[in-house]
Amino acid sequence: GMLYPEQRIFIFPIPVPIKAKWFVMIYAGIELFYAMSGTNSNVAHLAHLGGMVFGFILIKYWQRHPASAARVDDVMNLFGNIGKKHFTNSNTRPPHQGTSSSTHHTNVDWDYNAKQKQEQKEVDAILDKIRRNGYDSLTKEEKQRLFEQGKK
User: Which helix (H) or strand (E) holds 105?
Assistant: First the structure.
């Protein structure tokens, strides 16, 4: 609701689209009503409201300090690489995974993401070269690589 407030969404069973900002406000109102009504519904309504408040504060902070949002990505990548090292060790399988195909899918995802990241680094280096020295400074291979990546 904060990042894309004007985005229209469909909520079942409401037959018309509603803007995300209105949906969040209505949902917060419903949660507040149920939290205050004291019904024993076994739902942590205050936890939902707390999550909304925390998310609101976090997004506001990231909007004022964009570098800290980038650091969150760096930390997540760090954990992703640790997990990759653990799960791709050829001598051992992760505990409790056995021979399930989920390990294979996880490894394929990590390999795909690593390949995409490497390709992006190559394209970024080519674009930096263009910025510094112009398009004519590129080799034939670099021009071909840029063209191939542009088609994706």
Answer: helix 101-133
2 band by pLDDT with thresholds 50, 70 and 90? confident
Q: Which string of DSSP letters, residue by residue, matches 50-104?
A: HHHHHHHHHHHHHHH-HHHHHHHHHHHHHHHHHHHHHHT-TT---TTTTT-HHHH
CA distance 88 to 85: 6
CA distances 106 to 35, 80, 94, 103, Å, are: 39, 11, 12, 5
Which of 15, 48, 14, 17 lies closest to 31 in space, CA to CA? 48
pLDDT at 74: 66
Mean pLDDT of 59-85: 69
Looking at the DSSP assignment, which residues form a beta bridge with residue 18? 9
End-to-end CA distance of the chain: 31
Query: Which residue in this structure is represented by tokens 């990759």?
Result: 84
Helix axes 140-151, 101-133, angle to 10 degrees: 130
CA distances from 24 to 12, 36, 125, 142 (A): 15, 18, 41, 47
Q: Are residues 72 and 59 in contact, defined by beta-carbon separation less than 8 angstroms?
A: no
